[in-house]
Amino acid sequence: MKNIILILVFSSSLLLTACGGGGGSSGSVGGGEGGPETTVGDTSGLGNTKPSNSAEAARFLHQATFGANETEIDNLKSKTYNQWITEQIQKPYASAKNYYLQYWEAADAVNDRGNLNNQFFWQRVAKGEDQLRQRVAYALSQIFVVGFDFTRFVMEGNASYADMLAKNAFGNFRDLLEDVTLHPRMGLYLATLRNQKEDPNTGRVPDQNYAREVMQLFTIGLNELNLDGTVKDFNGNPKETYTSDDIVGLSRVFTGWGVACKPGSRKDYCFLYEANREDRYASLPMQPYSDYHSTSEKKFLGQTIAAGSSDPVADLDKALDTLFNHPNVGPFISKQLIQRLVTSNPKPEYVKRVASVFNNNGNGVRGDMTAVIRAILTDTEARNIPTGDDVNQQGKVREPVIRFANWLRAFNVQSAAPPSNKPWAYYNFGFTNEPSLTLGQQAYSAPSVFNFYRPGYKAPRSFSAAANLVAPELQITDEVSVAGYANFLYGKLNGATNAGANLATSYAPEFNLATNPQALVDRLNILLAGGQLRQSTVDTIVTAITSINIPATNQTNIDAAKYNRVKAAIYLVMTSTDYLVQK
Amino acid sequence: MQNAKDRRNFLKLSAASAFGLNLSQLSLASATTADYKALVCVFLSGGNDAHNTVLATDDDSWDRYLAARGSGSTDSIALKRTSTSVVNGSIPSALGPVLRITPISTTQANRNFALHPVLKKTQSLFNAGKLAVVANVGPLIQPISKQQYLDKSLPIPSKLFSHNDQQSTWMAFSAEGAQTGWGGNLADVFYASNNNSPFSCISAGGNWVFLSGQQTASYRVSPTGAIGAIPINSMAYSNLYGSTAVKTAHSELMQGSGSYLLNHLLEKDYAKVVKNSVEAGQILNSAIASSQSAIVQDAPPYINPVTGAADTNLLAAQFKLIARIIAARDILTVKKQVFLVHLGGFDNHDFQNTEHTNLLGKLDHALDYFNTELTRIGVQDKVTTFTASDFGRTLTSNGDGCDHGWGAHHFIMGGAVKGKDVYGTYPIIGVTKVDGSSNPDAIGGGVMIPTTSVDQYGATLGKWFGVSTGLNNIFPHLANFATKDLGFMKP
User: At what angle do helices B314-327 and B352-377 cross, to 10 degrees?
Assistant: First the structure.
């Protein structure tokens, strides 16, 4: 299985290759990209500037990657933001599925499969060079949510789903939407897989699950939106984008899709009975089975497919084209991506600028995700440090997963090579979704299709809600999870290993600054907080760690005290509210 | 044990309301130790399929049920009315017939009812008078007929059939974004007499708007360990990295306390949660470590009725923690509490036969366990437990599951419940009526139009809880319904 090469053709326009060996080809480039020096999507012109110092570079990297480190800060400082983005787009992407297959084969060989979870996510967070792609894919995974379970039968599919998002991170939204729709993990999660036409004899009607959620969550949302993401006002009322009748009509479109059929199998058997949990089918796009496709009239969103249409592919194209071209998609998706990467409460003008790029990248292309990502990251509101009232309102609560990722990256924390009898013990942090002991969040494992939190969440009785601000991440911030996070971090910081990831770092650069607390905290401020810690926070931490006495003699004790200063400083930064809110 | 006269000694709240709620219209019972009462919401997220939870087994309804639920197909989700041989190991037949329940009243004339076959303990609780069914409850603005619904001549709650919005509507009477729920608003009435306790509203099952009031905040506890509140270990140590100054700085930087002041709104919000976690957590853990709480026993093992294998039942674990907290009520000095426990996974668009059966098995196991522990503590008639869910589901089958609906049947459990009865109005079941004509009680897919509103359901519970006037403020549509008290609680 190591050198598996799958070539899948499932739409007229799209050819996906998932190559073994880490992928030699560059990621697909969005429509309209002109070449390596492109600035498509950069509406502010700030993309053509270089960060003026390490703090600015780090602040950008905290928006565009899983966290800053010295190497990447130096790299970014040597070029413009646009050049860095282009460089990232062209990096070969680390395949989660390939990692998984190698891991599984090795684990199988020693008959110890260990604790299956999303190591494929963490190892690419920590080591993947295609950081922008992986970070965007992670953001997309919180829009196109599949709450994975972690049994053997779906693991390959999970990894494949993550790869699909990564591939499409710099593609076109229309392709992304189709790939999401036809991925068997999504098919299983929202019931398109094996969904059948109506049957008057049994009373069966098509499953409405995907028809509803693809509109509510993946494309257009519930209310008609202005280009700036605000809800359109119809005499003081919102106007809903669809009705129950639209869902009934659209549910008929999403019938007649099943697992990829084993060559030589009977098609009816394939559709009805082939085990979709087998890894063989976990990654291949669902295929059309016209016998099971509804031929009733299909009315949705002002479109009508006349009765008699028996082609699942043609109907799907029509439905996805309709959704893709709905004016809500630009603001709906752009705003959520801004929230994932930059700030919980983007100004309407910011949303409008990005949504306009979604609608037209400047070269007449709609849905150019590369341009959208560039627009988000180079926008004045992303690049300029907030001023005035925004100082106390802009930014977002860092996700628990991202906080831990920040630590892994900032200090080059490595998972030791696994022992040969435990090949699974590599960046395996166990399940991190339990809030009392771990992070209260696990990538690709949201509790429902509504993600870990909602983009419009306002915390009851909060200061932010009183100022009419949303704060999605506060939805998973509670008396239990704040303690779980602090304890988890403290354990990892102080060498608590688990069987799944023997973590180590030398903290060498920080250790060398231990006798200069100000320089040490200044460094952490840049690495962990993009230079956005307040002076009072820095001062408090400097004073605190200075109180850790470094003895005059005994090298062992001296070193221990210096490490204590380093760890204390990191812990104080990473549990301070100043760090926890990314600005 | 309930003395209505004791609770008629009302105390007017004079506090002018800075909030939307008109507090001056609220009154509360004078608090005495004997006045302890608690409401426990069992939230079944995803939208429980009420059609397979409480069934009408009279012939007309049953025939319509079978017709809609694919009784002719191999993976039919139709349950069996009578014992049949097991067909190809299929789950409906393997489970045996539905469990007959016979209401003591004749409110639902000429109807017969039953429960899902795994709800055996629920059936026993029903028969023992400890549990009642409230039929066809859902969010409504006012009573509405099918014709009025189709004509759009009367308003309906916005964003029907949408999970997140209907969860919010059930809990807080408006779509996602609502800031207070009726659990929290009921608790607000007693906030002062509860000494402004952080333990007025407690969730053992996640963060839900139901428990947020104008004054009362939802406090989250963890059911997975021996303690309910999770301490931040580093704040409990005498020093950090050998330094008390580091520990002090840590505490201040995470809570915005001492000389370290916060200005950013999101930071202030985070810090507030930390502060509550630290301060309330110590009190809670100490209370539930008491001898009062120690009498609470573990739940018996849970067996998945589909597989026959032992399975974890996190709902029972949540109930255990709630029982321990209730047992420690005097230590916590709370007289009124609202709790929420949560069981997810009810969005059974497919795999319904295996998944829904196991979920109802967990509900059955956990309800019976909780009732046992409340009885042991001696508060069985002071604690009322009720179910809630996003919505009911379609009657029609999509093959191996069903889709989003509106009205749904719910359970009320406790010693103060007038049990063994079916309240509200159980509708005609069916996509159509037997004669093929339109079913006046159902819209597309056999979705039930609610005949009882969440306002009525909640207000009946709220009245028992001790809120006698001002219910109209907490339940915004109650005034639109003639029946304010559904009668399922003892006076």
Answer: 20
